[in-house]
Amino acid sequence: MATLLHIDASLFPGEASASRTVTAAFADAWRAAHPDGTVVHRDLAAEPLPHIDVVTVSAAFADPAAHTAEQAAAHAARLALIEQSEAADAIVIGAPMYNFGVASSLKAWIDHVIMHGRTLGEGTQSLAGKPVVIVASRGGSYEPGAPRAEMEFVKNYLAGVFSVHLGITPEFITIELTLAPVKPEMADLIPLAEQSRADALAAADAKARELVALLADAEKTTVGV
Q: Are the CB atoms for 22 and 202 separated by under 8 Å?
């Protein structure tokens, strides 16, 4: 049975969030295609992680036998996040754009999961090759050719940090112009916003089902069926 790790970082709940709506569609399609599978949901807004600090970093480079109580607790919590990611067969992440960057809660998760000698480093990238789909939502448009294309620091950052540090090539589903329905000056962009939302939901459904099929085929090959 395959496991999907579903991560949300939006500050807004449920359908009030564009990224949550699309990641939920992804998870629903995963369940429909793989009813015997497992979906583990981590809500980084509802249960934020502490930002990485010197105690957490120093613990990763120290002999566990020499850990202080504070280091031991921080290291155990960090390992739990890493092990949760390692146990997942695929990961879907909601990544809304806030002030041109990723949510601080998502950055905190990334900082905890990247650990030298475990997920980072030559020969020790335990997450390398894992399927990761990132739902990038934004109020405007930052795609090539858009007026603010040079301000695209979400997909560019996530593509870089996942590939360079973790050995993962993430796939992106982008939902744009989410502020069009609520900002009068963007009213003429509402049809494009609606199309972007429809395209993102369709892409989420298709990608989830595709990954389930690929994982099933891989499992059959592994067991020699």
A: no
Element (H, E) at 132: strand 132-137
In angstroms, the CA 64 to CA 47 distance is 27
Chain mean position to CA 39 = 14
Model confidence pTM above 0.90: yes
pLDDT band for position 217 (50/70/90)?
confident
Read off the DSSP letter of residue 198: H
Amino acid at 60: A
Q: Which of the 8 DSSP states describes residue 156?
A: H
CB 8 within 8 A of CB 92: no
Token couple for 77: 């919590």
The single residue listed with the structure tokens 């020699």 is: 224
Residues 6+ apart with CB under 8 A from 27: 4, 6, 39, 41, 92, 208
Residues contacting residue 77 through CB under 8 Å, at least 6 positions apart: 112
How many Cα neighbours within 13 Å face the side chain of 11?
A: 5
Handedness of CA 118, 107, 105, 215 (dihedral sign): negative
Q: How many CB atoms lie within 10 A of CB 184?
A: 6
**Which residues make Cβ contacts (< 8 Å) with residue 109, sequence separation at least 6?**
7, 9, 42, 44, 49, 81
Per-residue pLDDT reduced to its tens digit, 103-158: 999 999 999 999 999 999 988 899 999 999 999 999 999 999 999 999 999 999 99
Q: Is the pLDDT of residue 225 over 70?
A: no
